[in-house]
Specification:
Blueprint: E1 8-10, E2 17-20, H1 22-25, H2 58-81, H3 117-124, H4 127-131, E3 137-139, E4 148-149, H5 150-153, E5 157-159, E6 166-171, E7 175-180, E8 185-188, H6 191-202, E9 211-216, H7 223-227, E10 253-263, H8 267-281, E11 283-293, E12 312-320, E13 344-348, H9 360-363, E14 374-377, E15 387-390
Parallel strand pairs: 2-13, 3-5, 4-6, 8-15, 9-10, 9-14, 11-13, 14-15
Antiparallel strand pairs: 1-2, 5-8, 6-7, 10-12, 11-12
Length: about 400
């Protein structure tokens, strides 16, 4: 079996700046080719500035001022060191295609015939909670030769025990095929109602190994998301951000483990994360990674100095606070060969709405175990060897995303 692609176009996982192809970074069968998702931008977008000309979020502007030189110097390095890779040729099928700004204009990022996993769960309602057994874990291999109802998959942990990809046929309104990565497991369902399933499987009372890395991409509420008419907009969301307090992240992490959480540029949610949620989780920030969104020529997708919107998103990395000792950045005492965790810039052209670069290979050198146990919460696709959880967790694994 061929080795999966890391999606890294240039640079090493531990470098300060890395250039990534998001689609190639996703777990994908070695015997299939992923169908292109969205055309990468060939020129920066022109976004109108607010009529007042004043920053909408002054604290964001202050943070941006402190980051500006770092971002600009990294962009200069991108243009020089990575010049042989520019313009990016992510797919020949997309070279002459244009895309719209996913915030300024409504976008339908679904494929023809794609099943609506959210609509299914909305129809299911709360009845599932009253009778479901939280301890159920199912090996998919015995069922791989026959169709399984999504009703049976919903709210239970399912896993592929094989060291190779498998095709799973799932019945919703009709039969659909999904590609399940090797040694992966998943939980399909909304965060709040299926949290007891996760706690039963991986909590202190379970016999499972704790996670080396936990990654979260919560649907932070914001004005842009409300304006955009995505099929998975907040009208269909069952997520309450304050339910994150119920997670108790430190209980699920091994010694030296990390938690990463994608964050919008909103000062409101940054303050919530650092001053309320992290103390409740008993973790502290140790590094900040930025995904700077670029065109195929390596330019920011819009003006870096726009007073309202910034062409980047942030991943905050944290570790459990030591039981004793003063607060501060956690040290890598568990593994002398592990590189020190530092701030990083990830350059990548944006893909479909809400899809982030896969961090599987980039985060691995910083984890305490060479064969790390990892999980992604609010996931929209499955990753080889990882546990994934979300109300659209299988979406990116629909068979028709590949040729």
């Amino acid at each position: 079996m061929q080795q999966p692609s890391s999606g890294i176009i240039h640079g090493q996982p531990t470098d300060e700046i890395v250039l990534i192809d998001i689609v190639s970074s996703l777990s994908s069968p070695y015997f299939l080719r992923r169908v292109p998702s969205k055309a990468p931008l060939t020129a920066p977008l022109v976004i109108p500035e607010p009529q007042s000309g004043d920053p909408f979020d002054e604290a964001l502007q202050d943070r941006h001022t402190k980051r500006r030189q770092w971002i600009q110097s990294s962009l200069a390095r991108l243009q020089t060191e990575f010049k042989p890779h520019l313009p990016l040729r992510l797919s020949e099928q997309l070279q002459s295609t244009k895309i719209n700004d996913p915030v300024l204009q409504p976008v339908n990022d679904t494929r023809d015939g794609e099943p609506d996993l959210l609509a299914f769960q909305e129809n299911l309602g709360a009845a599932w909670v009253s009778y479901h057994d939280t301890d159920v874990q199912v090996d998919l291999v015995p069922t791989s030769l026959q169709a399984i109802s999504l009703v049976d998959i919903y709210g239970s942990i399912h896993y592929n025990s094989l060291s190779d990809w498998m095709t799973l046929k799932v019945t919703i309104d009709k039969d659909y095929e999904y590609m399940i990565p090797p040694k992966s497991s998943f939980l399909l369902g909304p965060f709040t109602s299926t949290l007891p399933v996760f706690q039963a499987a991986f909590g202190k009372s379970s016999n499972t190994q704790r996670f080396d890395f936990m990654l979260l991409d919560p649907p932070w509420n914001n004005r842009s998301a409300k304006r955009a008419k995505h099929k998975d907009s907040y009208k269909t969301s069952t997520f309450n951000v304050y339910d994150l307090f119920k997670l108790n992240v430190a209980d699920f992490l091994c010694d030296g483990g990390l938690v990463g959480i994608w964050l919008t540029n909103s000062t409101k949610w940054r303050t919530f994360l650092l001053e309320k949620l992290f103390p409740a989780w008993k973790v502290e920030m140790v590094a900040e990674w930025m995904w700077v969104k670029i065109t195929v020529h390596g330019d920011p997708i819009f003006d870096l100095e726009h007073p309202v919107r910034k062409p980047y998103e942030t991943l905050i990395l944290a570790r459990p606070i030591a039981a004793t000792g003063p607060p501060g950045p956690a040290l890598d005492n568990n593994n002398n060969n592990r590189p020190n965790l530092q701030d990083k810039i990830i350059f990548a052209t944006p893909d479909i709405h809400s899809r982030k670069p896969c961090l599987k290979d980039i985060i691995k050198p910083y984890l305490p175990n060479s064969d790390p146990q990892c999980c992604e919460i609010f996931a929209r696709n499955l990753t080889e060897g990882w546990f994934s959880w979300g109300n659209e967790v299988m979406r990116g694994n629909w068979r028709r995303f590949w040729t």
